[in-house]
Amino acid sequence: MNPFLWPFRLQTLVGGLACFALLGYALFAQYQLGKDPCPLCLLQRAAFLGMGIAFLVAALHGPRGWGRWIYATLVSLFGIVGALIAWRHIWLQNLPKDQVPACGPGLEYMLETFPLSRTFKMVFTGSGECAEVNWQFLGLSMPAWCLVWYVALTLLAIVAATRKSPAR
User: Fold this and answer.
1) How many whole angstroms separate alpha carbon 56 and alpha carbon 8?
2) Cα 37 to Cα 21: distance, rounded to the nearest angstrom
3) Residue 164 in 3-state DSSP?
4) Which of 61, 57, 69, 59 is nearest to 11 (CA)?
5) What's the pLDDT tens digit per position in 81-138?
6) Exposure of 149 by Cβ count < 10 A (0-12 exposed, 13-18 middle, 19+ buried)?
């Protein structure tokens, strides 16, 4: 069965479940595989959380017409932000070793010590820990897979919004 032909609620439910499954795997990788997340990883998790919540609320609400576009826009905004963070992360991972920035303090310490604007600047600048590739699947690092998922889930939200079928 073609997922592009599924009803709106099923498409958004699948999108939300995919987001939470990705978050579940991130927690599994952290606590069972010992892959501690860097600050950029944590921001990518927040983007998936935002997407997942927007998808699930859309599935529960089941709007028609322009209401679908509100949810698609919300999911897309989280997806674009997450994709930009993942892109930056991938860029850091592909820097030559001599250009990798020095490791910085952890995100929790930065949030407690610095103003929020400086914390965000430091996080997006990246640090040496963000450049480390300690997990791969089919030749892609975790941020690369996140980028793939951000694009796919954003497209799913747009396809769901363009469907001319009943909300149910």
Assistant:
1) 11
2) 17
3) coil
4) 59
5) 999 989 888 888 777 776 655 555 566 666 777 787 777 666 666 555 666 767 666 8
6) buried
- pTM here is 0.77
Sort residue 62 into left (φ over 0), alpha (ψ -120 to 50) or beta. left
Altogether, the residues listed in the chain come to a count of: 168
Query: In this structure, what are the phi and psi dihedrals at residue 162, rounded to the nearest 5 degrees?
Result: -85, -10
Give the separation between CA 142 and CA 49, rounded to whole angstroms.
16
| C-alpha of 133 from chain center | 18
* Contact (Cβ atoms closer than 8 angstroms) between residue 122 and residue 114: yes
Distance separating alpha carbons of residues 64 and 24, to the nearest angstrom: 31
CATH class of 3-162: mainly alpha
